[in-house]
Design brief:
Blueprint: H1 4-31, E1 51-54, E2 58-64, H2 68-75, E3 84-93, E4 105-109, E5 115-119, H3 121-131, H4 139-150, E6 166-174, E7 188-192, E8 198-201
Antiparallel strand pairs: 1-2, 2-3, 3-6, 4-5, 4-7, 5-6, 7-8
Length: 203
């Protein structure tokens, strides 16, 4: 006959056996990324309506990602909810000496005289996690998300040469009070650090 202790042991073993797939699935999920990020190649072509300005050595084009549908599609997360506004930036080198992009300073304002704070992709990630209430996670999952997310960031560290010709990416801004982004109007992107300042009316 089977003792009560043995029956209890079999029951616990059965429970663990049934739960094993759940633990396995959880482990796999935690070892991947916090969010499913598409590769940068998934970005659509810069819209024809994108603001454009030629300053001789380079031509700047920019367009904001204003809807949560756009950021959800790319990052599986709502950047606007976190108060983060991504702006697509395209810089074409028109010839001559390399363009030192690290000297550039980005400023964004709207028609309500609201000034947005320029932030790095890493700072944007922290805002996203906080807005989504994510505080417990596998460190490797965060590293993967950071790597995939930062692949979108516009590279300002490396000079742009005529051989490279063109560079694209996202720059990020945080709303003044860190409140969710709600259809801002009259957005103007200003870029300083060039012989001629750049001013782009985004919408």
């Amino acid at each position: 006959m089977t003792s009560q202790r043995q029956r209890g042991g079999f029951a616990r073993a059965g429970l663990l056996f049934r739960a094993a797939p759940l633990f396995l699935a959880f482990g796999v999920a935690c070892s991947s990324s916090l969010f499913k990020v598409k590769p940068p190649a998934a970005l659509h072509t810069m819209p024809a309506t994108a603001a454009t300005m030629n300053v001789g050595v380079a031509t700047f084009r920019a367009a904001p990602l204003l809807t949560d549908e756009e950021t959800q599609e790319l990052f599986e997360s709502n950047l606007q909810l976190a108060g983060v506004l991504p702006v697509r930036l395209d810089v074409a080198h028109n010839g001559g000496t390399p363009l030192e992009l690290k000297k550039l300073k980005f400023n964004l304002q709207d028609d309500a005289n609201g000034e947005w704070k320029f932030i790095t992709a890493k700072q944007a990630i922290s805002r996203i996690l906080k807005a989504n209430g994510i505080s417990l996670y596998n460190p490797n999952a965060r590293k993967t998300f950071e790597k995939e997310f930062r692949a979108y960031e516009f590279d300002v560290k490396t000079p742009l040469t005529h051989e490279e010709r063109q560079r694209q990416g996202l720059i990020f801004f945080l709303s003044a009070q860190k409140e969710p982004v709600a259809s801002p109007h009259g957005l103007v992107l200003s870029i300083a650090g060039l012989p001629q300042p750049v001013s782009l009316k985004l919408n």
